[in-house]
Amino acid sequence: MGGPTSLACLDAGPPAAHHPPMNQNLDDPAVKRRLVVLLLKLTPFAFVLCWVLAALQGAPAFTCTVIAGAAAGATLGAAVSIGLFGSGSRYVFMAVVILIGLANALMR
To answer: pTM, whole model, 2 decimals?
Structure first.
């Protein structure tokens, strides 16, 4: 097994014309639609997984539900933001992070 290894052998070739890669511009309607659909499908899984993980750490049921609701809300918010603004959704995400940081600083 001497010699350099390359990940080029793992390349499956160019994607099919009807399925552009997800890392393309979010202003492409096909990419945007696929990402929004994926996020909407993952929302229930995010809720359940976060609820279970919080419960495994010993959190009360109400706290588990709040944490899981925040995760599901973030997933839905990302889907809505990408669906409405496309590649401009990065500014929405940045604004949310800044608002959370400000709220955290004010609560200290």
So the answer is: 0.71
